[in-house]
Amino acid sequence: MGELFELKRPQEAAPLFEGWQETMIWSCLQGVMGRIYADALEKPASAAALLGDFCFLAGKPNRELVLYGPERREFLILVPGNGGWAELIETCHGAQAKKVVRYAFHKEADGFDREFLQTAADGLPEEYTLRMMDEALFRRCGEIKWCRDWVSQYENYKMYQRYGLGAVILKDGEPVSGASSYSGYRGGIEIEIDTREDYRRQGLAFVCGAKLILECRRRGWYPSWDAQNPWSAALARKLGYRPACEYTAYEVIKHREI
Predict the structure, then answer these.
(1) Mind listing the pLDDT tens digit for each residue in 188-242?
(2) What number is the average pLDDT over the span 54-63?
(3) What residue ranges in the chain does DSSP mark as E strands?
(4) pLDDT tens digits, 129-145
(5) Average pLDDT of the chain?
(6) CA quadruple 213, 48, 44, 21: dihedral positive or negative?
(7) Is the dihedral angle over the CA atoms 41, 39, 155, 21 positive or is it negative?
(8) Torsion angle in degrees (nearest 10) through CA of 137, 140, 146, 152
(9) Phi and psi for 86 in degrees, rounded to 5?
(10) DSSP labels for 162-229?
(11) Cβ atoms of 54 and 15 closer than 8 Å
């Protein structure tokens, strides 16, 4: 069995991820958050960028890297860089790996209609309050299971202030919908958006998504969007994102019923 190494100089793996337009990989390569593991400390042939629930696999397919993340986590989304990685994931994890389709979008900084987004952000019904994420909200969201991912990749609020941004809709002082940074990199964020189940289908995600995009652009940041499902993809298109492609990922869950 080959040995794996955590790269202290993440840029050593940059050639393996070249051309991959994925901000979570950029976060890892920049050393902002996440980690990169590889088969060698210098000039690796295989690498995995691991951040939160995501693991991106690049270079030569490597069994140890395919097994590494899921051995330590109950849930992980493996994204293969090529067909060889996909075959290896299926071989190593079998029925524990659920093959899914995700939706990528072009990263076009000037592709947003700011007037349209401002109208959307201003259209919140009076019974709700829209606030940008502050320290009190950061702590509160971290305590709530359904919206924890808005802040969970940040060690503390100071780190969030530097690399994160979020817009939260409140009802009676409690979060009911929001758009925040799942992760951050130098130049932008990866958006995580959700609405509490009993407040869905009221257009709240559209409002907070529009607000977050506007605030990102005011900072000169790019608000990256990667959709897990057709609903998220439709919302992205409504907000002004242009579809790039569909791609395959594998959701690996330990003890999945089979």
Answers:
(1) 999 999 999 999 999 999 999 999 999 999 999 999 999 999 999 999 999 999 9
(2) 98
(3) 5-6, 35-38, 46-51, 54-59, 75-80, 97-105, 129-132, 166-171, 174-185, 188-195, 222-224, 226-227, 243-253
(4) 999 999 999 999 999 99
(5) 95
(6) negative
(7) positive
(8) 80
(9) -60, -45
(10) HH--EEEEEETTEEEEEEEEEEEETTEEEEEEEE-GGG-SSSHHHHHHHHHHHHHHHHT-EEE-EESS
(11) no
pLDDT one-digit tens code per residue, 20-42: 999 999 999 999 999 999 999 99
Amino acid of residue 189: I
Which tokens in the block code for residue 8? 């202290």
d(CA 197, CA 179): 15
CA–CA dist 54, 77 (Å, integer): 5
CA distance 244 to 226: 10
Q: Is the pLDDT of residue 12 over 60?
A: yes
Distance CA 39, CA 77 (A): 20
Cβ burial, residue 9 (10 Å; 0-12/13-18/19+): exposed
Tokens 């330590």 sit at which residue?
72
Cα separation, 89 vs 249, in Å, equals 10
